[in-house]
Design a protein that fits this description.
By secondary structure, the chain is of the alpha/beta class. 45% of the residues lie in helices and 10% in strands. The structure holds thiamine diphosphate.
């Protein structure tokens, strides 16, 4: 059993979730003003997953992410400035303004990429885990992916390979219950993703993905297991995105306003906030201070991004190929 993380980790986890939320809110606003070039899939509502998992990772551990990857990037150590500037296409972005939301790279902090393709994070994490195993360096690889990826062949191949070679990988399915507009219940004969772990020979654990302490506790065990050479695990975090699939898209042809509102009432930040107060871990004033800091960080990141230069067109062909 993992000890209750609330007293020791609660504030840190709250801060991480706040930083993600405030940054996403800035991006929503910026998208509506035409400042973001390319798609913008926000992570609002799912912050507990990135915060709870990444709290266990060192800079040397690696994360592979998806089109919904802003939260993973921030939780892994990308700064708000570098994230917002990347979405604004500025040279100060983490991919020098060349990638945008779906090509966020920051190898210096172990963010080995977000991707617009559904599924590859699973295979990439298996590959990284294989190299870590050969190098015996104690590192862990994490794949974040949505429920839309679990019926993709990459899921089968990645989990099976990680299991037979006992690779140090954590597979994190963020089951937000929809793949764009397709309900998971429509796309899967078995409603439990976690149950599939057994089929591949690894632990499969389902947690309330809006409860950051539950995610933290489950990830603690899976990461420790991977680091100890005991192989991979599958973590299913049941959660919900409260914004449309991507900014600018409609939202109520495939789900109801009532359903969205019911999940907003289970907002991961509100849930943890109440527990921090009820558990006597923090006062209203302390939390208000953290909230103000996160808001200022995100607002400052936007100002920084808007004031940053565009990439020089003459550099369009640099940073394209790796030089041996
Ligand atoms: C291989 C592949 N097939 C289809 C798409 C089109 N597509 C983009 S996002 C998406 C839904 C993804 O749903 P999910 O994996 O559950 O992630 P979520 O958007 O819910 O975070 C699809 C099908 C794609 N990008 N890649």
């Amino acid at each position: 059993m993992v000890a209750d993380p609330l007293p020791t980790e609660g504030l840190r986890l709250y801060r991480t979730m706040l930083r993600i939320r405030r940054c996403e809110e800035q991006l929503v606003q910026a998208y509506s003003e035409g400042l973001i070039h390319g798609a913008c899939h926000t992570y609002i509502g799912q912050e507990a997953v990135a915060a709870g998992v990444c709290a266990h990772l060192t800079r040397d551990d690696v994360v592979f992410s998806t089109h919904r990857g802003h939260g993973h990037a921030l939780a892994k150590g990308v700064s708000a400035r570098e994230l917002v500037a990347e979405l604004f296409g500025r040279v100060t972005g983490c991919s020098r303004g060349r990638g945008g939301s779906m090509h966020l790279f920051a190898p210096e902090v172990g963010l080995l990429g977000t991707s617009g393709i559904v599924g590859p994070s699973i295979l990439q994490a298996a590959g990284a885990g294989y190299s870590f195993k050969l190098l015996k360096n104690g590192r862990v690889a994490v794949a974040f992916f949505g429920d839309g990826a679990v019926n993709n062949g990459a899921f089968h191949e990645g989990l099976n390979m990680a299991a037979i070679w006992r690779l140090p990988v954590l597979f994190v399915c963020e089951n937000n219950q929809y793949a764009t507009e397709v309900p998971f219940s429509y796309a899967a004969g078995n409603a439990s993703v976690a149950a599939r772990g057994t089929a591949y020979g690894m632990p499969g654990v389902a947690v309330d993905g809006n409860d950051v302490l539950a995610v933290y506790a489950a990830a603690a065990q899976a990461v420790a297991r991977a680091r100890a050479g005991e192989g991979p695990a599958l973590l299913e975090c049941l959660t919900y995105r409260t914004r449309p699939h991507a900014e600018g898209m409609g939202d109520f042809t495939y789900r109801t306003r009532e359903e969205v509102e019911s999940w907003k009432a289970r907002d991961p930040l509100l849930l943890l906030r109440a527990r921090l107060i009820d558990g006597g871990v923090a006062t209203e004033a302390q939390l208000a201070q953290l909230e103000g800091e996160a808001a200022e960080e995100a607002a400052e990141a936007r100002r920084f991004a808007e004031n940053s230069p565009w990439p020089d067109p003459a550099s369009a062909t640099t940073h394209i190929y790796a030089t041996p």
